[in-house]
Amino acid sequence: MNRKWVFFLIISSLLLSAAAHFYFIQEWFEGRFMIGPNDGLSQMIPFKQFLYDQYKEGNFFYSWAFGLGGGFYSQLAYYFSTSVIFLATAGVVFLLETLHLIDAPDLLFWADTILFVSIIRLSLIMIAATFAFRYMGIRTAAAFTGAAVYGLSVMYFRHVIFWEFFTDAMLWLPLLVLGTEKVIREGKTGWFIVAWALMFFNNFYFAYIHLIFLLIYILFRWIVPLSEKECTKWQQLRLFFTAGVISFCISAVSFIPAVYGFLNNHRPAYEADIPIFHVMDNILYASKYIILPAILLLFLFTKTLYKERTYKFFAWLTLFLIVLHFSPLAASAFNGFSAPQYRWEYLLSFTAGGCIAAGLQSLHKVRIKQVLLPAIAAFGLYFLMAQTMARIIGPVLALEFQRQLEIVFQLFLLSASLLLLYVWRKHVSFLFLLQLGIVASCLVVVNEYEQLTISERFGIDKASRDFLHSPAYNGAEQQRLIRKIKNSERDPFTRIDWMIGLRNNTPLVQNFNGTSLYSSIFNEELLFFYWRDLQIDMRRESVSRYATLGNRANLHSLLQTDYWMRKKQQSANAPYGFELFAESANYAVYKNTLPLPFVRTARHVFYEEDLKGSSTLDKEHAMLSGVVLEKKKGQSHALQKEKNIINESVIQTESAEYKNGKLKVAADNGGITIIPRSPSAGTKDYYVHFHIENVHGDGFALKVNKYRTTRKPASSIYKTGIHTVVIRIPKEKKIVIRLPKGTYELKDLKLYEEDYHELHQAASKNVIQPKLNWDKNKILIDYKNETNEQYMALPIPFEKGWKLKINGKTQPIEKANFAFTGFKLQQGENHIQLVYRPPFFSYSVFLTVLGLIGAAWLISRSSDRKNVL
Fold this sequence. Notes:
Radius of gyration: 31 Å
Number of domains: 4
Largest sheet: 5 strands, antiparallel
């Protein structure tokens, strides 16, 4: 391909990409964004803003502001922290900001850039795919048409709107195929190493998906050789293995911390049955994952094309992936053998593009009578699928897809007519019209998909500039209160318990230290802290979120959360010891009058093993009275345990029947009422514990007095599998538990009184805080131990990557207070240094250097195939 063609390819790809985004370009001028209102606004742009700010400040690894604190380099590697596209974008943005060509980026800026980055990314995808198809012997025009089919797929737009980082994988896939073909045909490993190093570095999850595809691709290549001179299978395996190891080593600086972050996350096992085969959508015109182009069906039914090896290879591979699309078991395998997730269908789009490109290459050998039957068969398939869909989902729902059916069927008639015209006359102008028709059809499909399926059905049109400034996302009234807190508070580590609705990343959006996080991957110690150890209700059950501290004053003080902000109608749930600090028309902020210092020392030691079976209140008291350690080294300090007073209480029912642990609620808002008998005079709060499940597996809302939380259905892939609920409520005469109509398993009822004696005692200690300096990923503490303190406990989540030195000597870090950081103190002066680097970072850097050396060696060797073979 000469320079003129390369320039033409670049311009054509950019123009075609812009045309594919036509609907969203219109929306952008109307003040709306190319982003989903849920994960897009809750995760994608807050993570971009957060990472850019951290990187700009020279902080690359750890932040106290990331949820309750965490190593964002490894935990956000699934998203953007190691995304090549994001890093390149951030570099350009930083340069523009440094040159004062733009103001400091904010959330609106990152929402705006999605459209423009997407246009550039999609053009690069089509260019890469064109080169891959070209290398396989397909002419440029046909290769570009196939690349357009790949890039202009509904999966691309589904991913870029909801989970933008998913689309990066579509850029690396053609490079991977090109590198694989280079190894098979020439024994050269350069492109293979580059493609895999980029993939490993960029995203470990899609590297796994590509590894599965690579194995399938190679197997099909062995079945269908595409050229006369190819390396032997043994030679290929040697090169693939060697180049793969080198690619892994090059990417180790990113890949190893990212995989550790994934392994250090916790997801409950998926318990539902996974069928081998299940028809869940119509891939001809009504699928949210892939819509097969009409020309592909016409080609697949054309027997003559299968005589050409390149076409046969792509056709068989495409048919195989179509079968896998209807296999939930395959979807589970692509998702790490967890819950079925349909995120891999862009692989099918690529092979479909290759099939169409190879078909166009060989179409001149097809006669008119050889495409008449395929045209009839394809027409019959569209008709059959329309009728079948109406029977499966019902005529009413089928009507919702009627417009898609009409559009796709018209495109089918166009493609069939242009195909017949070219096959009949064999004139180059008709081939050009056919290719133009294929590309135009893809443009029509994706723009209609953007409007009908994405925007109207999933509410993308709600993601607007106005919404980003609204109280539902980042209201001005909320910002004023946050600023007032930050301006009045001298402690930089103070947290604010506040989030908007279900947007757990509100602290990242509004730029404050919070108590919530929404991410697919984070420190499992915090999940266990919430679910198992302290059983903190988050107001919404989820495996990918944590939020609030259950309005429990002990935890607020222990975790530096000294401000509590809510809508005014929720103020009755303010934690004990919190007094009104500020208010606005709709919100109120309360401040903790019983704060505890960031650095806490302890003489009394408790052990998790000895606290098993204890109430959450006992565990809170142990943390306040001393420190709780995971590994037992001696005898636990004596702890006075709180009494369960449920047997001294009266239980009444309301529109319900409760017997033998089964609660049948006859009407909505029915349930039980607990009436404690003779509460102690000093009691301030109640802690009520119980196990609850919906017998029929439905999700439900649970209300305890003025507190409301929700539980997920049994079928949800985001359920925690934890059914014990602990609710703190202010002292009242009655504890009212209310549920929707249904049948529930309600058992293990427990009730405890809290007088906050331990909290008052801990808060009243007159302790001089040691000198502390926290700069990026390094913490320095100077502490003089003159009172025989045994341990120091910090509210920093326990996480691999922290290294501790005391007085210049390395010391072990222990898990303290169930999920946080603790270590043994020495007598006298303690010069403490804590440094965080991503797990195994030094080894990773060494492997990266080793990989680069290995790549230079192998590429130089494979440049002369004879030296390798």
